[in-house]
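#lab-general

N.A. 3:47 PM
ok so I finally got the sequence cleaned up, no stray characters, all 239 residues accounted for. can someone with queue access submit it? mine expired

B.Y. 3:52 PM
send it over

N.A. 3:53 PM
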Amino acid sequence: MTGRGDGRLIRPSPNAIVTIGLTLNVSPPTLSLTSPSPFYITVTARILDTPHPSQPITLQTHPNPLERDCLFNRSFNNIVCTSDPDKHIELWPLGWPQYHWDPEDLRSAWEYMTIPARDQGSEVTVKHEVPRQKVEAAGVKTGERYKVSLTDKCLGARWWAFAGEGELERVRLRAWRAPEEEEAEAEEERGLERDDPELYEEMMRERREKYADGPLSMGEEPDMLAMVVEVGEAEFEVV
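B.Y. 4:20 PM
back already:
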């Protein structure tokens, strides 16, 4: 299966060099209708395979199951009642918002997360609060059991690097481009510099004013990181 037309937002390579394992759970283990305490879906991530086991990995979390406070980015199925499959707590978005971002400065639009190096044996967990209004709208009742599950739509990252947060703190993050795309752009700029030096200098000045002259990183090829589901379902009871 190629993934064409299946609605996947991210399609990692089958030959990805890095794999991130995901484990789904809920916290607390039951959903109370009377307690004011939040109910969370949790996703825990750890590095399973990497050519650099002593290095952490920092990745863009939009759109994947690690995106903070975002149950509605198509990473999660609706929460289905196991005794009545027609009944569910709705998470699946009815539409899809339009996003605009600057490919030369990804950090201005998206959040990033660092997963500890595999050699550390550590993991990172993200908590997604299930909105009470969604629970109430579903008419959830005491004694019912529900199942939450991950989709296969967002199992990857659109930007990632072998680096920790500290290493990238003052680095401008730029969208990855294939070497041939980089060379084509450089050739175009060399042509502009040769044919219209004034316009070229103006373009360079505007670029420096907008982005400054600090370091930048395009990270690694996005397709080369894949997320694999170690535990993709969790059940809970309503109390």
